[in-house]
Amino acid sequence: MHKRPRTINFKKCLLSIAFLCYCMGSAQSYIGYLADNYNGVHGVLSNPATIADSRTKLDINLIGVSGFFGNDYIGVNLSDAFDDIDDVFDKASQTANESNFLASNLDILGPSFMLSLNEKNSIALYSRARTFFNLNDVNGEIIDKEGGFNENESFFINEGSFTGSINVWTEFGFTYARTILEKEQHFLKGGITLKYLVGVQNAYIRGEDITLDYDADTRLITTSGQLTYGEYDFNTGVDFDNFLEFGNASGFGFDLGLVYEWRPEHQVNSQLIKDGKPVSNRGINKYKLKIGASITDISKINNRDGFNEIYDLSGTQSIDNFDGQDLEEAIRNNFNLIESQNNPVDSQLPAAFHTNIDWNINSLFYLNLNTDLSLIRTDKLNSNRILNEISLSPRLERKWLSIYSPLRMVEDIGFLWGAGLRVGPLYLGSGSIITSLLGNDAQSLDIYAGLKVPIYQKTLKDKDGDGIEDKSDACPKIAGPLENNGCPWEDRDKDGVLDKEDDCPDTKGPLKNKGCPWKDTDGDGVLDKDDQCPKTPGVAKYNGCPDSDNDGIIDDEDRCPDIPGTPKHQGCPDTDGDNLPDVDDACPNTAGPVSNNGCPEVTEEVQKQLNDYARTILFDTGKATIKSESVITIVDIIQILNEYPLAVFTVEGHTDSVGSSSSNQKLSEARANSVRDFLIGKGISPNRLKAIGFGEEKPIANNATRSGRKQNRRVEINLIK
């Protein structure tokens, strides 16, 4: 039998890569640790906004290493490594399918630091070296054959298309983050990282429509398809004397991130210092729920030296042509080069979108939900790509200690269970250690570890929970208000009313009277709290109000407080019984209608009686002088007028026709005025009387006779209606 030809032992190479990555690193990067609120500068790797309002004042990373290997072809039993390390390779299981993949990365965080400038602003500087290896859509049978095959057995493999790449680069980043919004329970911060990238080494390969057909009888292998192969070597690309200058492989990139925090107890998380100004307690987590989103590695490395070659794999040749050659030699020596370029394809960094939700169950326990989604296609040439995953991580977190255990679902790998911890300056963990130890065919291996110098924010103490930090609190163990320097208010008189609300702090009194005893201002024996008239002496019967006329109506409600009256008339009397109280009655002693203000109305009989009296008034002949014997008559008239105090009358003078009419007119006016003046002199209001003289114009009898003339010489008093 002919000795089989061998190129590169690819299977052994893949197993070596797997074990190397397991010994050096973690899943994608620092799984679990990046959710820790005390991770300092590491936070910028997944979201640059995290360092704003950080629990870490200054964080100096000395060295940190994280590595990851994942695939769906090789499965290892980690426990074999404890007995014999060779067993890891010898007993490894292989699961070949038409689209196997392998992925690994190595992430070394070198000297880096993060600094919190103040409550709103933070910065970070970091140095980082990274290695990514991706091999996608490979027919697993090729890997099996590459490891060795029976030359006496024919085979046909339809590979189709596949891609693969390995990239090694360094990056130097500057991060700035600040608080964007802080409004009551809502808090928002954002951040950006700018990166300078230096390529160290890069190689990539892509096959299209590839088939392998081996005939054992003829020992000929027929191949078809097209292969693209490129490489960049650090020997021509990095100027270590001045690495900040653009070399033959360099570029710029950036990360962007936002973090929102819901802080329902934002008032509790602000302490008060001596000057009374609120200051954030930066040493504690103030959120109940934190939601973050970021995009990382938006960048590429421009490869300006190296080569990019395209080969036509079509042809039939003996397998002896490949004997003793490695993969690159076999391609170049046996297939046609159809295109060659000096500049390789640019290296696309593993751009990804990250979301993170962190629930603060209490001050000790947290639950974190994280997703990492690749923004790079698997078939993109010379690209680096993370595996999509979602993880749920319970976490115990204190300032100097964190313990977490991520439970993950990783693309094309499945369920992984890991664990990690941070103890002061030391951090280490793995995103798959538990499943690797408990399972027999682990397809993902990772671990990370590092050392740093953290300086955490000072935590303000408030033992009594009154919102005043202990150093500014005059009574740090007993809750009290700020206005009393953190001490509770006293109650010196023990009346249940605190001194700050007690107007009489040394004398007991009820709360309703602001801690003072009730007074009796008017000294009537009725306390002011029960006295409806606290400033006027009264009687208890009337709630401390007086009733001067003892009519049962208190003075404040009595229209006639000094005269007994009835409730019907608001404490006033109604002497004449005309249903109009005396205070409103123009004729309180004589009943009259309300329409006439309580006074009687002048009737026709009264009018007649007035004129009967008036006509008997006698005057001296030819004069206006009233004769003495008529005074009695006028007194009777006055009595009648007084009975009708609101009535208004005319005093009319009349004469006979003897003499001239002008003299008679003057005489009638004089006599009317004489009677009016007499009545006014006896108390009748002038406003009630009007004097009019009619002369001889209105006779009531015949002036031709003596008796008629006597009747015409008269005075009449008539009501003005």
Automatic annotation (TrEMBL):
Question: What PANTHER family does the annotation carry?
Answer: LIPOPROTEIN YIAD-RELATED, STATOR ELEMENT OF FLAGELLAR MOTOR COMPLEX
Query: Which Gene Ontology MF annotations are present?
Result: calcium ion binding
InterPro entries recorded:
Bact_OuterMem_StrucFunc (IPR050330), DUF5723 (IPR043781), OMP_bac (IPR006664), OmpA-like (IPR006665), OmpA-like_sf (IPR036737), Thrombospondin_3-like_rpt (IPR003367), TSP_type-3_rpt (IPR028974)
Q: Look up the domain of life of the source.
A: Bacteria
Descriptive protein name:
Thrombospondin type 3 repeat-containing protein
A GO cellular component annotated for this chain's UniProt record is:
cell outer membrane
Q: Which residues form the signal peptide?
A: 1-29
Instruction: Name the SUPFAM superfamilies on file.
Output: OmpA-like, TSP type-3 repeat
Name any Gene Ontology BP term.
cell adhesion
Gene3D superfamilies the UniProt entry points to: OmpA-like domain, TSP type-3 repeat
Please give the chief subcellular localization of this protein.
membrane
Does the record carry Transferase as a key word?
Answer: no
Q: Which UniProt keywords apply?
A: Cell outer membrane, Membrane, Signal
Q: Which residues form the OmpA-like domain?
A: 606-721
Where found in the cell? Cell outer membrane
